[in-house]
């Protein structure tokens, strides 16, 4: 092995002092320097305010996006302590903002019983990654202020006035030499803080975006807490019982749960620890699921809904159609990293399981009509699961008897390396024919589909196996569906939906995306699903290379550029593509399939709650919410084909 001729001694070991480590490796502390990391900066400061609310001292938080993407966060809590810290010999407030892991969240005698900011790095990290930070504290009858630049103290804490109020106000400008963009998304912040307000009963949160001439603003305060949260999540769904089931326990580990069943076929369980969204679940989710399965099976047997000969209902049967929010408060939570996506405290499983066992059993006994409605749905789900199992086995047997387990219309690629392979799901045989001729056979596969496929939002899994429109997709991807889906078995690294740029094409894209979201969600979460972007227009002229335009803006830009070259609009031929079948194989390759020139849109899912809401709204049974959505968004529609 070749040895590099570099010195390796004490002088080569770099020691980063103060907050230099944060500026050197920001991703370690806030996840990334993308827009997601930028928003995380705001979350960290707001989390500190929420900790004051959880401790019972803060009732209102105000967040503002000022002109120039300056963030302001103000609360009416106790205010950060201003006295000299015994260890650092500087003010406690300055200590919190300049030293990592300095905060009121550690040890048995900490300032907070529970806290979202586990690591105590929030304030100091935001300070380190900001061009400047200004902190104003109202406490002990005085107004105090300090100022920092890139994490370094420029103006120490000083008293600038007097007041009878208490609280902390933080203003900061993120450092544009660190972040890819400083453009905050108001909707992302609004959604986050609505969620926080649901989880912190009675806390008022105001948010305002002052960057535009007409400010955007919202105010949230939910006295109903998690009950209001579940009702919000189910606003576009038909429910089995009007009022959510509410369970609360105050103890060493406070637990709060709200449950409501709907007529849909999907489960939506959202878990939080100290108001932090644990998107990967953890021990609290495990305890909840175990208890749910036990309680409903015990009730079903004791009330003869299940007979001795019947098998127990499976967890997935009992969770069909459920919407639940599980929120726990843990004094010393163990998370996987600073991003806090999975709870690891083993003791929480037993606490949640025991509490749900007692409270849910009592509820079912006291509300037999609700219990009956839910269990009828569970039993129906169990029968459908058994039907789906038989259908799945039939498909597997049929596949095993055939010479190939791949769908007959699939034109596969020669490479077997999933990472480099991609499959185009193409609308119609005509476009499929052009795509087959124009593709690179080494790594590009083509799967033509025809006609409208099943809307899985309105169907159970047993209706999906063997479906002549969806089965080819399941077989081509090769990783199963639903609980059987295994991301490691996918045959293609990119699954690309290529449909016409018209209403029918949009519908097919939506139907496929609904299917992937409901039955192959890891495919989206892993970043394997893409939308092809075929051109809308072609500009042509004899002696000139054809010019393709993907949007109306592209077309207008192309016209202007060509006019500057002396080519007027009258001299140009304009073709509006209404279908992929209008392109010959060479055109399709050049515009939509060539990796060097094509435009692909990656389908991502940053917000599962929002994604579920949109799919339910657009593809579910409730007509009125969909009508309202269409009326509200009709003005934004372009290129509607009549």
Distance between the terminal alpha carbons, to the nearest Å? 68 Å
Mean pLDDT over all positions: 85
What is the count of helical runs? 19
- Beta-strand residue fraction: 15-25%
Task: Give the C-alpha Rg.
Answer: 29 Å
| Whole-number total of structural domains | 3
Low-confidence region ranges:
1-17, 105-109, 400-404
The CATH class assignment of the largest domain is: Alpha Beta
The share of residues in helices is 25-40%
Task: Say what the CATH topology of the largest domain is.
Answer: Heat Shock Protein 90
Largest sheet: 8 strands, mixed
Strand numbers in spatial order across the main sheet: 5-4-3-6-2-1-7-8
Computed structural class = alpha+beta
CATH architecture descriptor of the largest domain? 2-Layer Sandwich
**Form type:** flat
